[in-house]
Design brief:
Rossmann fold, 7 strands, binds nicotinamide-adenine-dinucleotide, NAD(P)-bd_dom_sf, SDR_fam
Length: about 260
């Protein structure tokens, strides 16, 4: 049987890194693309003997994405692996949702969110489609519960994530039946312990942080990684064009003040 191959953007830290590590333990070959070279080097070093190709790539840059996919194909050939991809996870992007009040938001800053989340997903998806078609693979887009609900001053992030949800159902309709396309909307996921060494933190959460979640805790990157693995598997073979909130139930809670 062919060893499955996953391409994960933003794979060197946070949710992306947890997804890389889960898929490696489940027997996948993984190509991780991340624009932070220091984090990429740390990921590479931590998995020196694993079937992992870790690359410093800005997914919003057309040429860098093209070169990365050429590199992935070369890596597969070098190891005698068949052509094609089984999974693309569009996870990379500016994770900080706050862009400040819209009336003072610079166009360049608006574009930073759109470029990293939406343009990055467009470029990587475009590059991956032929390989995904070959193996009847899947795409998982990492959106956010902020595509569905808001705090103030998150317009650029919310628009990018809402765009990603719309792109998910559009792609599902265009790319079926060969390729399934779904999205995950994470809620509050604590990524401090999953950052590169220079940025790593281990925040203590307050009782109220845990208690406000119907499941009684804040999320972990592994919660999202496990959902990616499910959506990529045959168990999810009848699911496409959908989004799943991985948020401990927060988007199902009414929060009118008493
Ligand atoms: P993170 O900052 O821990 O990791 C994101 C990674 O993406 C980083 O390693 C960063 O270098 C990389 N990246 C950013 N822009 C890139 C680009 N243009 N090209 C290549 N790599 C790039 O963030 P995270 O919290 O793990 O978030 C991952 C995804 O999940 C993001 O899309 C984020 O919006 C989404 N999300 C996170 C949360 C949360 O609570 N952590 C909630 C909802 C959605």
């Amino acid at each position: 049987m062919t060893t499955p191959l996953a391409i994960i953007t933003g794979g060197a830290q946070g949710i992306g890194r947890a997804t890389v590590e889960l898929l490696l333990t489940e027997g996948w070959r993984v190509a991780a693309l991340d624009r932070d070279p220091e984090a990429v080097a740390e990921l590479d070093e931590a998995h020196a003997s694993a079937p992992l190709l870790a690359m410093a790539v800005d997914v919003s840059d057309e040429l860098q994405v093209q070169e990365a996919f050429t590199h992935i194909n070369g890596w597969q050939q070098e190891h005698g692996k068949a052509d094609g991809f089984d999974l693309l996870v569009n996870n990379a992007g500016l994770a900080d949702p706050e862009c400040g009040p819209l009336e003072t938001l610079a166009l360049a800053d608006w574009r930073r969110w759109q470029e990293s989340h939406l343009t990055g997903a467009f470029l990587c998806t475009r590059a991956a489609i032929p390989g995904l078609r070959q193996r009847h693979g899947a795409i998982v887009n990492i959106a956010s519960t902020r595509a569905l609900q808001s705090e103030p001053h998150c317009e650029s992030y919310a628009a990018a994530k809402g765009g990603l949800l719309a792109m998910t159902h559009a792609l599902a309709v265009s790319l079926g039946p060969e390729i399934r396309v779904n999205a995950i909307c994470p809620g509050w996921i604590e990524t401090g312990p999953w950052q590169k060494a220079a940025k790593r933190t281990h925040p203590e959460h307050r009782d109220i942080d845990r208690a406000q979640h119907p499941v009684g805790r804040v999320g972990e990157p592994q919660d999202v990684a496990a959902t990616v693995a499910f959506l990529a598997s045959d168990k999810a073979g009848f699911i496409t064009g959908q989004h799943i909130s991985v948020d401990g139930g927060m988007t199902r809670k009414m929060i009118y003040a008493e």
